[in-house]
Amino acid sequence: MRKTLLFFFTLLLTAGWLIGCGDNGKKVTPTTKTVGTTIFMQEAGSYLFAPQVGKFTLTGNTLSFTSSSVIDPATNQAVTAEIYSIALSADSKQATLEIYGGLDGTDGQWDIFVANSDGTGSAVQITNDTNDNRMPQFSPDASKVIFNSARLMDDGLLHSMFVTRTVAGNVETVLPMPLAAFGTFAPTYSPDGTKIAVEAWGYDASETYFDGIVVMNADGSNPQLITNPAGDTDSYDETPSFSADGTKIAFSRDTYDSATETEYEDVYIMNSDGTGATKLTDSTAISFDPLMVNLTGVGQKILFSSNKDNLTATGSSGFEIYMMNTDGTGVTRLTTNSVYDAFCGGWYSSPDAAAARRAKRNIHARQPHIGHNYGHVVRW
User: Fold this and answer.
1) Residues near 333 by Cβ (< 8 Å), separated by ≥ 6?
2) CA–CA gap between residue 351 and residue 150 (Å, rounded)
3) Does an H or E element contain 151, and which?
């Protein structure tokens, strides 16, 4: 009898301990953590753009996106300027961008700046010339910026070339034009800094026109043309972006259908040697300027700008930022407003924008001016 009582007493104690180790009626709130950051530009009127910092957060298994304007602490106003493109450093602490008119909007030229992405401090100007400097991107360690610049070559003609400048010291290196091209656009580094991908266009040794993605060593040696849609259609490939491990490249392909006089652009992905190119969007919209991002604990995603949900919108108002998986599935709209959202101003509307983008031999067509404000720029 004593053994029986002892058994039941022990059983009750054990049951009480198990109940005490339960949730005790309390709900556990999932933690929210930031898993990625991006930066893009949003139309602010009068040809001005406001840089927007986007944050990806993970709460449990739910991925969310929010964005806010970069604020100038001195004025408590959103930073705005006439910007053509903007990009983050690998650690998300700095942004590089080109501004027309300088910080006070008066100098009448496009120059490259580097600034803290949180708006603190003052922007550092790393070019100061009339060479139409555009499309800057950081090196992986953020010590250098690579960008396009209009320069006179030995043939006496103006070419769109790509150039690197150190952020501290402004030491400049003009890289050799790949494959005797007469124009390049939107260069970018691989994550390990050993390679550069860039759009290039020109004529090869047989006088055949090419316009596609070239990959080369970081010093400009060993250039390889890995895409070239120009040989078959009125198309070109642009704005390459490497995956986090350097094995993939996302890019966009612009195609003009002369029969219907329509133009569209699609996002593609391929291996970094040019094999396995796959179209990820459906040719019903302008989907351009892809950016590969690696979200911690989530994986690789592709961000891009598109008017896919706003095909009837006029002007620039239909373009929003989207995200998708690297196989084109899971397309998610990240921004919803009535203004232009993008990483660059390539599709910002102007009366001759479509014609300008098709004039491939004109440097200003491939890097179109989006208008000039000559004034209102908030200090960064």
Assistant:
1) 309, 320, 321, 322
2) 24
3) strand 144-152
Q: Tell whether the torsion through CA atoms of 131, 136, 138 and 139 is positive or negative.
A: negative
CA dist 285 and 308 (Å) reads 5
For the chain, give the number of residues.
380
Contact 47, 372 (CB under 8 A): yes
CA angle 368, 371, 376 (to 5 degrees): 135
Which amino acid is located at 264 in the chain?
A: Y
Q: Are 298 and 63 in contact (CB under 8 A)?
A: yes
For residue 90 the two structure tokens come to 């690998």
pLDDT tens digits along 159-217: 889 999 999 998 999 999 999 898 999 999 999 999 999 999 998 888 888 999 999 99
Q: Whole-angstrom Cα distance, residue 148 to residue 162? A: 4
Q: Domain boundaries in the chain?
A: 27-366
Contact 236, 254 (CB under 8 A): yes
Integer angstrom CA distances of residue 164 from 141, 173, 303: 13, 5, 25
In CATH, the number for domain 27-366 is: 2.120.10.30
190: how many CB neighbours lie within 10 A of its CB?
20
Distance CA 51, CA 44 (A): 10
Question: How far is the C-alpha of 73 from the C-alpha of 113, rounded, in Å?
Answer: 18
User: What tokens appear for 278 in the block?
Assistant: 């796959």
What is the C-alpha separation between 71 and 86, in angstroms, rounded?
Answer: 16
> Strands across the sheet with 341-342, in order?
62-69, 48-59, 32-45, 341-342
Residue that is written with structure tokens 């972006």 in the block: 241
> 322-380: per-residue pLDDT in tens?
999 999 999 999 999 989 999 998 776 443 444 444 444 343 334 443 444 433 444 56
Element (H, E) at 222: none
3-class SS of residue 12: helix
DSSP state letter for 28: P
Q: CB 308: neighbour CB atoms within 10 A?
A: 19
- Within 10 A of 45 (CB to CB), how many other CB atoms are there? 11
Task: Read off the pTM.
Answer: 0.87
